[in-house]
Amino acid sequence: MSTPVQTSHSVSSEKTVRVINGWSFLLLNLATYAAVLVLVIASSHSHGLSSTVCALLAAPLLLVAIICSSGFFTLQPNEAVVLLLFGAYKGTVRDSGFWFTNPFKKKNKISRRARNLNGDKLKVNDKNGNPIEIAAVVVWRVRDTAQAVFDVDNYENYVRIQSESAVRHVAGSYAYDDGAPNELTLRGGSDEVSAALTRELQERLAKAGVQVEEARLTHLAYAPEIAQAMLRRQQAEAVIAARQKIVHGAVSMVEMALRELSEKKVVNLDEERKAAMVSNLLVVLCGESEVHPVVNTGTLYN
User: Fold this and answer.
1) What average pLDDT does range 24-32 have in this prediction?
2) Sheet holding 20-21, edge to edge
3) DSSP category for residue 135
4) pLDDT at residue 2 greater than cutoff 50
5) Is 108 helix (H, G, I), strand (E, B) or coil?
6) Dihedral of the CA atoms 79, 196, 165, 181 (nearest 10)?
7) Which whole number is the average pLDDT over 41-62?
8) For residue 275, what are the CA distances in angstroms to 32, 69, 250?
9) Cα 165 from chain centroid (whole Å)
10) Buried-exposed string 269-278: b where 16+ CB fall within 10 A, e elsewhere
11) CA angle, residues 276, 277, 279, in degrees to nearest 5
12) Could you name the CATH architecture of 115-222?
């Protein structure tokens, strides 16, 4: 019976190294080129053994000077260089300036500046299954250069794909705007949703040595196929809410009118006249069009 082979993933860790100041080594490199030039001139003006010796000395010096020229590099603020020597990680240079290192070391330059990832509009289903369109912008930077280079294949592509996956997951965890009472929704809790998206992105991108500084929703809407239906529903809800406020206010005003008439003894109304007055006041207060009064020259009972 064969036993399954267990594989483990080793997490890389950045280590900072010091390199040689480039200006001092540049003088030495230029002196080497000058020595090569002197030897070439001396070889052309001499004969026999002296010419051969000068030529033999000039060739290796020129080769050394050319090889050393590839060891120079510059760094701007918020940039770093990952150094590799025959496939082995030797360290990261973070200090800005003009530097020199072993010319056989491979130099991978990485920007540590903040970057914006403006995500595309994604069509997903919210918590209630309604299709919605959502997009987000992510502000991120490289925190650990070793993890960014060695632990993922392409950290920029990794950030893009994981950001899209995180946005889809967060969108499916909340309702758009029709949640239960006191339930957090995508539309009503933008700050809380953005914080949740930032946390999830940080968990996903930590293995790539990436620091997520901020994540915000830039687009949120119902999908076109249900947008009109949802708009009619929102309009109906708005009309109902407005009617409730109108009716509540009208009833309060009618109650106040009846109470004032009774307390100040302006007129004595029986139950039938009170009912007629309530009906008329509610028509006046709740009607959408202008009310035209009708003057009754008789009595209420005729």
Assistant:
1) 89
2) 20-21, 97-100, 72-75
3) E
4) no
5) strand
6) -160
7) 77
8) 112, 102, 14
9) 12
10) eeeeeeeebb
11) 65
12) 2-Layer Sandwich (3.30)
- CB–CB of 163/117 below 8 Å? yes
pLDDT band at 6 (very low <50, low <70, confident <90, very high): very low
Between 12-16, 69-73, 172-176, 274-278, the lowest mean confidence (pLDDT) is in: 274-278
Residue 67 CB neighbour total at 10 angstroms: 11
Q: Which residues on adjacent β-strands are paired with residue 97?
A: 75
Task: Summarize the chain as % helix, strand, coil (round to 5).
Answer: 45, 20, 30
Cα(163)–Cα(136) distance, integer angstroms? 9
Tell me the CA end-to-end span of the chain in Å, nearest whole number.
Answer: 105
pTM (two decimals): 0.69
Amino acid at 57: L
How do the domains of the chain map onto residue ranges?
20-109, 115-222, 227-286
> Torsions phi, psi of 81, nearest 5?
-125, 125
pLDDT (tens digit per residue) in 106-161: 999 999 999 999 988 898 888 888 888 899 999 999 999 999 999 998 999 999 99
